[in-house]
Amino acid sequence: MSNTISVDDDVTSHLTKAGCAFGKLQDRLWRVHDVSLRTKIAVYRAVVTTTLLYGCETWTLYRHQIHKLDQFHMRCLRSIARIKSWDKVPNTDVLRICDITGIEMMLLQEQLRWVGHVVRMPDIRIPKQVFYREVEAGRRLPGGPVKRYKDSLKTNLKACDITPRDINTAPL
Asked: What is the domain count for the chain?
């Protein structure tokens, strides 16, 4: 928890922890020739991405934060797949070779999964009450408006061609 609405510290912390998890597997897995790429990617998903994205469903991210997460993700995948920087392989090809999605898609999936859980909760649950509540009073900080979770969710829903009404009426 933070007294600011920025998730910069959280993202940095998760990048550090995921980097440590990735580094600990360097000599035991990533550099081992006998292990298939498919197995390495399965371990990467289970260990590194879960560490990196733990709690991401409630983050309100800006483009620069998504970019930092994506850079880490691609750097790890290139290392696992043994793709050197001078090979000039585009990120889309790296994702295809590793048979994994980009970090932005993972973030979107987690956010939509969490919203689905909240919407289906009984009305007496606190997360659902907070999710649907509007701020009654308060002062805005000087400068431009700060991106809210609801704004981020609406943008993601629109990108997926889902209306907010569809979420509320989704079958259980």
From this structure: 2
Q: What DSSP letter does each residue of 25-58 carry, written as one string?
A: TIIIIIT-SSS-HHHHHHHIIIIIIHHHTTTGGG
Residue with tokens 């994702």: 95
Q: What mean pLDDT do residues 121-149 have?
A: 79
> Are 132 and 79 members of one domain?
no
Length of the chain: 172
Residue 23: closest CA among 5, 9, 44: 44
Amino acid identity, position 111: Q
Q: What is the pTM of this model?
A: 0.86
Q: Which letter, b or e, does each residue of 132-157 get, where b requires 16 or more Cβ atoms within 10 Å of its Cβ?
A: eeeeeeeeeeeeeeeeebeebbeebb
Query: Would residue 43 count as lying in a domain?
Result: yes
- pLDDT tens digits for range 53-83: 999 998 999 999 999 999 999 999 999 999 9
| Pure H helices in the chain | 8-24, 37-43, 50-52, 63-80, 91-98, 103-120, 126-132, 149-159, 164-168
Is the pLDDT reported for residue 172 higher than 50?
no
Contacts 24+ apart (CB under 8 A), 123-128: none
Name the average pLDDT for the chain.
Answer: 88
